Amino acid sequence: MASRLKQLSEAGQAVWLDFVDRKFLGQGGLRKLIEEDGLTGVTSNPSIFEKAMGHGDAYDAGFTEFLGKADASVVDTYESQAIADIKAAATNLRPAYDRLRGKDGYVSLEVSPYLANNTDATIEEAQRLWAAVGAPNLMVKVPGTKAGMPAIRRLITDGININVTLLFSLEAYQAVAEAYVGGLEARVQRAEPIDRVASVASFFVSRIDAQIDKSIDARVAANDPESDALKAIRGKVAIANAKLAYDWYRRFIAGNRWQALAAKGAMPQRLLWASTGTKDPAYPDTLYIDTLIGPDTINTMPPQTMDAFRDRGSVHGTLTKRLDEARHVLDEAKRLGLDLGGVTTGLVDDGVRLFADAADALLGAVAQKRTAFLGDRQNGMTATLPTGLNEAVEKRLEQARADAWARQLWAGDATLWTGKDESKWLGWLPAARGQQVDPAALKALGEEAKRYRHAVLLGMGGSSLGPEVLANILGNAPGSPMLHVLDTTDPGQITTVAAAIDPADTLFIVSSKSGSTMEPELLRAFFYDLAGKDGARFVAVTDPGSKLEATAKADGFAHVFPGDPTIGGRYSVLSAFGMVPAAAMGIDVHAFYEATAPMVFACGADAPPAANPGIRLGALIGEAALAGRDKLTILTSPKLAPFGAWLEQLLAESTGKEGKGIVPVDLEPIGAIEAYGADRLFVHFEMAGDAEDGLDTALTKLAEAGHPVVRITVAKPELIGQEFFRWEIATAVAGAVIGIDPFDQPDVEDAKIATRKLVDAYEASGALEPETAAAEDNDFAIFTADDSGFGSAQPAALLRMHFAGLAPGDYAGFLGYVERDETNAAAIAAMRVAVRDAKAVATVAGFGPRFLHSTGQAYKGGPASGVFLTITRDPDPDLAIPGRTASFGTVQIAQARGDMDVLAARGRRVLRVHLKKAGGRIEALRAAIVAAAQN
Fold it and tell me: Is residue 1 scored above 60 in pLDDT?
């Protein structure tokens, strides 16, 4: 005796399996169902693949084989296995397809549920999947949403078989039938065959009863006066709805319009009963099969429902029976206000969401398997967080998943942030894939640069900080020039670099996005003059149409490399601004992008937030800032120490505005636990084999004391590009969490304006505007803001009062307009330690004017918790600027004074200490700060 499932086929209803799995296919499970039960089709969806791929190890060998050839995105990794399964199922079903001449024997693969409301993207993906599987018995599943209807018509017109999913109402089914017929008619008009173009309409059943029954039960429990009528239709609405859809189908295919197509070989768009597993244990588990049996239909069943029907199902032609009763049920549902229309509309939205949720879970599982396979080819990250912060981060990640932050970010959706012009500043995303640079031009530059012993980059902010990290962590290749980075107006530092090079044996890289930034322009003028005005030894990196581009062309520069105006300076390291100096140093730029790619893939639009290292980190640092832990303290193993300067700018300039943001703390020596307040978040970067003695133990103790600690591991220097990108994503996401635009810098320009005002006055008069010290001694003079309230006192007393104002949650900033050398850096580090240990506050430091284009934004626009000490000195010797009255030293003093004026105007607490030539200089100040902090 034939199985009950085979009897269904004999009654005209095709049996399909709503399941696919690698092990099931490999063990011959599908072939067995085809042979024994007459199975003629398979359906799949994200939920099915999530169960198959996300649990167990059945797909691990496939992932390993695929990723062993080349790294790939999360979705490509998933699709490599899903398509393999679909191809295997199509092969199993091909004999049935051939025997039935295309009327059955199909396997379905769904377009991404994320595209359910995007017609063009749905069409594009369906065409891609159709080509990738390459089997005539594939059906591409497209949701029956409003956006899906025109996509269905277009795809049918293109000759692609379509399984329309998520149909719940007669009206939606009629629209789908119209799309199918319209597509066939379009093919007829183009004289194209229609006899092998197939479609099914997946009409969902049990979900309707689940919703309607819930409403019925609630009203009955509330003693609704219509309780008896409500109970009479419980569990019957979905079946009645399906029966009337089938009744419409029969009448439709009997009409002249369809018969004209049938005469040309068209196959009817069969109704496929989906969601046929019962949700209510009170119902028979074969209910939605027994009651919906009829010719030219399909019932797709999960394995357990198939087993149940095989065991105890009933094969009778029920679909056309008791139609009057079905109409009565729907009439009653309407009379009783059960709002079937609203329910079915909501179920479409719910279905899209549920499939998207399943896709998120699926891709998250694949992302984790991909990361495990890559091992140390992808930088790792772990976090130890206090309970409250951990809960906030997980809640934020779930919000980010539900609201599709990853896809919003990569799609350039400004509503992720403030809804202003953020979408215009996302060129750094494709730049990370190497799409902004000209590889051939960079390779040629690398060869040309081998003629030189040195390369000097003249820049500021984003155009200099990234290249400096590359120079210090990767270094120059053998036979290629050493890169010196100058981003200052300090005459001592400029003189040091000038003395270290032979201008005739040096390649100069002038780097400025706007082409009008003052510091690179002054440095260009100085070194162009020093090089004998030989433009052939200069290259420029600048945005198209800039002043620097015009100057470079006029002065005969060897090359002008274009930037991308949609990339802000601090996000530009993976664009020409980082890669031109990298190429000059002999770094293999192609290999660098290849080494960076695993993180770019991992942070892609297809990586759900919880499994997306950039979004996870962004949620963490953003939530930490909202919780008051806004002092992100950077700790590194020795070889990664240079990375902090780049990260400082990215975080501070991106998030520090509107009184909010993250204050990065770099190069502050590790201290005792009691030196740290509850405003800290620690981030540790460690390169393999480069651990710093005692640091790991200190971090463990900090975590045990309740401080959040993030640990990032980098296997080798060549992977530093991954951290550039991880932190760019994280910073953009942190901006969304905090609620600011992470791509503007509204407070940076004020300091530039104040500086230009002072410099212009000097150019006109030959002197800076006079100022009067509030206190001075043999070593230094102290200048206060007009409204500081300090009055006049001895320098030691002023310093003591200044730092006495530090309170929990504040931070102390040491802003040195002095040469950035080891002596000054060590002295400032000692000042920081003294203040931190005495006051238990975070400390920051920067060398001016470099920090003005970096952390200066956060100091002026971020949290108003900074207490600043600006350090200046009379340059000795000074350095003239060709074509200018003002010297480099004068410009630097003007920058310091202008910056202090703006800080004061923003209500920041600030003093300026000017070191005297004849005094004890930086060492005297160090001693004074140590004494002031202890009193």
Answer: no
